[in-house]
Amino acid sequence: MNVEIEPVTGRYMRLDFEGRPHRIYWEEAGQGIPMLCLHTAGSDGRQYRGLLNDPEITRDFRVIVFDMPWHGKSSPPPGFETEEYKLTTKTYSDMVLTVSRALQLEKPVVMGCSIGGRIALVLAMEHPSEFRAIIGLQSGAAIERYYELDWLHHPEVHGAEASAAVVSGLMAPTSPDADRWETLWHYMQGGPGIFKGDLYFYRGEDGDIRDRLGRIDVTKCPLYLLTGEYDYSVAPQDTQAAADLIPGVKYQVMPKLGHFPMSENPDLFLSYLKPVLAQIRGSR
C-alpha cells in the first residue's frame, strides 16, 4: 500500500466574534513567518492545499488557512436559521483581525483571493500596522454586475451547482482538469445562499472602494497584487486600474492562470508567488 501523509494539521477554535459565539476551523503547516490565507467567495480553505504542502514555502512560512464562518468546516453562529447571510466589509475585516489575534500571530503576511483580494486592499488601507505584507490575488476595487444573484439561492435551482457553473468560466483553459474540477467541487459543496451572501459584500456599494484606494500607503505595509490573465471577473485591467491609484504597489499579471490561481493550477501559481515571498522574507 502506498500511503502519503500530508504535513497539514487541522483544528477548531471557539471564539466570540461580533458578540456571537463561533466555531472556526483552520489548517496550517510550516514554521517561521506567519501567513494568513483567505479563500474565495462561496468556497473554503481547501483552495490553498498547494501552499500547505510545498516544503520550500513551509520551511520559512507558517501557512494558516481558515474557513470563514458559514463556509467549509466552520459553523454558522447559533440562530443562523432565522437570518439571511450577508457579508459586509466591517464583518470581513474584523473577522480577519479577530482570527489573527486569537492565534497570536505577530505581524503576519495576509494573502486573499477574489473577495479575499478585495478585503486585502481594505486591510492595507485601514490596518497596515497589523501586517508584515499584504498579497492580493485577483484584486479589484469594484466588480461589474454581469450575472443575476437570485439564481444562486432559489427554491427551483441547486444553488451549489449553479455557483460552480457561474465560476467555471473564470479559470484558465490550460489549467489541469483535475485541479479545475476540484476547485468546482468546493463550490458544489457550498451552503445554501452562502455564495450569494459573500457577493453582497463583493458586488454591493459597501464593497466598492474605488474612491478610497489613494489612502493606501505601501511604506507602512508592502502591497503585492497578482492577477491571472484569463479572469474576466477581475481582469488584469481591473487590477491595473486599482494599482494606478496606489503609489509604490507591486503588480504582476500571471499568464496561463485565472480567477483561482492557487487551486486551479497550484504549481504554476507557486512559481509566481515564491519570488514575492522571497522579497518578504528578505525584508524581515
Characterise the protein shown here.
With 284 residues, this protein is of the alpha/beta class. It has a single domain (9-282), classed as Alpha/Beta hydrolase fold, catalytic domain (Rossmann fold), CATH 3.40.50.1820. The chain has ten helices and eight strands. An eight-stranded mixed β-sheet has the order 1-2-4-3-5-6-7-8, with helices on both faces. The longest helix has 17 residues, at 266-282. The protein is globular. The chain starts with 8 loop residues before the first strand and ends with a helix. The mean pLDDT is 94.
In which order are the strands of the major sheet placed? 1-2-4-3-5-6-7-8
How many strands?
8
Largest sheet: 8 strands, mixed
Q: CATH-wise, what's the superfamily?
A: Alpha/Beta hydrolase fold, catalytic domain
Radius of gyration: 18 Å
What letter string, H or E per element, gives the SSE order?
A: EEEHHEHEHEHHHEHEHH
The rough form would be described as globular
Quick gist of this model?
The protein has 284 residues and is an alpha/beta fold. 33% of the residues lie in helices and 18% in strands.
